[in-house]
């Protein structure tokens, strides 16, 4: 039972980290594209 719970908690933690990194990547891409548009507007 304890090993099962440990495995589940490890999997959920891993999943949360994966989701957070995917969200960070999307946010970074949006920030870069906005920055690029801003730079083009200045040129």
UniProtKB/TrEMBL annotation:
Protein name: Uncharacterized protein
Lineage: Bacteria, Pseudomonadati, Pseudomonadota, Gammaproteobacteria, Enterobacterales
